[in-house]
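Entry 14. Structure prediction run on the chain below.
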Amino acid sequence: MGPNDVANLSRRIMESAKDSNDEKSLELGLWLVIDDFTERFPERGRAAALHEATSFLFNNNARHFSFFPSFALMAYEALSEILKWYDASVIAEHMIGYQIELLTNQHGNERDLKKWFNLWANSVNGWCEISVDEHSWPGWGTGILNRCEQFSRIPSIQQEVYGFWNSIIEQYGSFTPTKETLDRHRGELNEMSILAIREMDYFQLLKIDFTSRVKLLAKLDVGDLVDVMNRAIEYAPKRITDEEIEVELNTINSAKELEEIIHLSNELASRLRIEGRINKGIEILSNLIEKEYFEIQGDETAMTYLKLAIYYDEVGRGEDAEPLFKHIADLEASPGAGSVSTLTIREASHRYAGFLSRLERYTESKKYSIRENTLAELTGDPLLFVRSCFNVAADCKDLNEQKEALEWFMLGMMNIKDSVTIGPLGKPPLEHQSQVIELSRNHAIALGIEDRWAMMMQHIFGDEGNPPVNEQ
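Output returned:
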C-alpha cells in the first residue's frame, strides 16, 4: 500500500459514513471498504482498513454504536498479526479510556477494562522488542511511564499496572526520564502542596496521588524526587486505629492550653474523616465548641467552627452547618493578635454562599458571594476574585437580574488573565486555572453569549484562545 492507497482508503471510509443513514448501514458500508482492501492488499489491507475505520469511529464520537467494540478488537488483532505493535497499542490505549468512561457512567465493567489493559501491555511489550535499545529506552520508557501514571489512578487496574511496570523495568532496566517529565512531577507536587494549603484536608488527595507515583518512580534514576514526594506524603494525616483514638482523646483531655486542645482536636478530626469516620470527627469538634471556655478569639477557633460546618454539610446536616457558616462569614477581620483572618472569613463566605445556592436561596447566596468577592480583592487573590464574580453572576441570573448578571460576568472576564497567571502564592495550580476557565464558559453558555465568550478568550489569550500553562 502506497500513500495514494492510504489516502483513497481514508476517502472511502468518509464516503461510507456520509452515505449511511443509520448504524446498520454504516457498519455495512465500512465492511464493504474493509473487504475490498483485504482482497486488494492481502498482506496489510485488512489491518489498514480496520485501523482506519476504528480511528474514524473514535474521532467522530461513534463509540456508542453496538459494532464498535468488535471493530476495535479486530483492528487490534489484525495489527498485531503484522507486528504493527505501536498502532495496536494506540487502539488499546483509546479503548482503556473508553472503558474508564463507561465505568464512570456505570455502563461498563471491570472485566473489559482489564482485558484492554492487558492487550495494551502485550502490544507495548511487542514494540519494545522491536524498537528499544540502550539509546532509545529512556524515551520509550518515559512514554510508558506517563501512561502507567494515568492508568494507575484507576483502582480496578492499579495492581495490573504496577505488575506490568515492574516487569518491564526488570527486563529493560532503570533509566532517567526526560527533563520535561521530571519537571512536571516536581511542578505538580508543588501545585498540590499549594492546594493543600488552600483547601481543608486536601493533603489526603496529595497522599493518594503521590503514593501511586512513588511506586512507579522508585526504581528510576530521578535524583531526590522520590524523597521529596515521600516527605510531602508524610505531612498527610495518618490512618488511625481505635487504640490511637483513645490515646489522642486522653492527650486532648489532659492538655491545659486552649491552643493545644484546638490543634489536637482538629488534627484528630481530620484523621477520622480520612478514615471514613467523619461522624466521630463531628462529635469531637462539636464537643469542643460547646465547652464553656471556647469562644471565637483567633483564627484557630474560627477554623474549628468552619471545619465543623463543612463536616456537618458533608453528612447532610445542613441545619447544624448553617449557623456555623454564617457566624464566621459575618465576622469582621481586624489587625492584631487574637483576630480572625480575612482569609478565613473569605473561605467561610465562599462555603456559605455555595450552601445557600444549593438551597436555591439566591438572594442570600448573592450577598455572601459579593462578600467573598470583596475579601478576595482585599487579600490580592485574582483567581478567587474572578471565581466569585462568576458566582455572583450565576446568582443574579437565577434571580432574573440579567443586566447585573452580565455586568458581574464581564468584571470576571476583565480580570481572568490575571486570575490564571498571578496570585499571592505564585501562579495558581493548573487544576484551579482549568476550573475558572470552565466556570467562565459555563456561565457564558447560561447567559447565551458563548460565541462572545469565545471571541473574548481569543482576544485575551491570543491565538491559542486558552490560558497559558504553568512554566515550571
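DSSP finds 23 helices and no strands in the chain.
Filed with the rest of this week's runs.
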